[in-house]
Amino acid sequence: MMCKLHHRRNSFHATRIGPFLCWIVVLLFSSASSISQTPRPTRIAVLDLGSSPTGVRVAALLRGGFRSQTMTPSGVTNREFDVVDSDQAGAAALGAGFNGSLNMTLSEARDLGAAIGCDFFIVGNSQTVRRSPSSGTIYYEAFASIFLVSARTGRLLSWERPEFQRPTPNEAEDALLAMLASEETRHRYTIAIRRAQEDERAERARAIEPATTAVIEPMSDEETSDNATRPPRPFRRPRPLYPESASRADAEATVDALVDIDARGEVGKIEVVRWAGYGLDQSVIDTVKQMHFFPAMRDGVAIPMRVLLRYNFRKPPIQNLSQ
């Protein structure tokens, strides 16, 4: 009797526990499915924009904007961005040798992003300064140079330098912070990041497809001394313009561009591999598009070749208007 009773109890527990365990498995599977379908938040780091009080405040404001949660049309809270802790990001950047430069190569930007462990990062400079014009009253100017960079590609996605002039430093800084705290500003950065993510996904998809065009070889240092190979030579060397946006920021930088030149000497793909912002990159691209070359030659035959063009920008001296 005891054995039968024990057997019945086991049957009873099996009939009760079996469905219960099935429900647990179903719930766990459903939870795992929902988690796998939820996209990982985009990790973004905002480094301090200089050591001035304005730079620290602007950086904190930008971090707060990315931390803001958005609502989907169905009313579900969506956290699109995961902001890297400022102390952690700063320590990682310092360990990677970052000194606040806004003139980086793609590899330097990628290395910085990898050290921080983010998908995108913001660097820049922000200050409130006193201006004493030669004519007129003294005023204060608050500005912020903000560079948004992809950690995956190292490319400069966007740059801006809003500035406000006011009679007092507090008024100038408050105007700057109000502009950067606006929904329009946060939306602009969000759109830039989303667009970059789409472009990077498309590039990865193209990278795994079979190549359909001929590979263009880069010009090497050895080829410059090889009598059988002659690198491409430009018909003329136009100088890129130094834009007003760079002049207002007193920007001095170097821009490097990799340029594909076909067997006819015509310019093809242009990729900026050392960026500087302030309109300097676009000035280089606009200039290179206008160039024509004698094509590279090897054994008397024209060949396509990829060359590196470097442009050093220095602010032009102020001309004496009295002359």
Task: Name its key features.
disordered N terminus; TolA/TonB C-terminal domain; Rossmann fold; globular; 6-stranded mixed sheet; alpha+beta
General description of the model:
This protein has 323 residues and is of the alpha+beta class. It folds into two domains: 42-207, Rossmann fold, CATH 3.40.50; 217-313, TonB (TolA/TonB C-terminal domain, 2-Layer Sandwich). 38% of the residues lie in helices and 26% in strands. Strands 1, 4, 5, 6, 7 and 8 form a six-stranded mixed sheet that branches. A four-stranded mixed sheet has the order 9-17-12-13, covered by helices on one side. Strands 10-15-16 form a three-stranded antiparallel sheet, with no helix packed on it. β2 (70-71) and β3 (77-78) form a beta hairpin. The termini are far apart.
Total helical elements: 8
What is the N-to-C succession of helices and strands? HEHEEEHHEEEEHHEEEHEEHEEEE
Q: Specify the helix fraction band.
A: 25-40%
Query: How many β-strand stretches?
Result: 17
Mean pLDDT across residues: 85
Beta-sheet strand percentage? 25-35%
Assigned CATH architecture of the largest domain: 3-Layer(aba) Sandwich
The largest sheet, given as strand count, sense and whether it forms a barrel, is: 6 strands, mixed
| Principal-axes shape call | globular
Q: How many domain modules?
A: 2
Query: Rg from C-alpha positions?
Result: 28 Å
CATH class of the largest domain: Alpha Beta
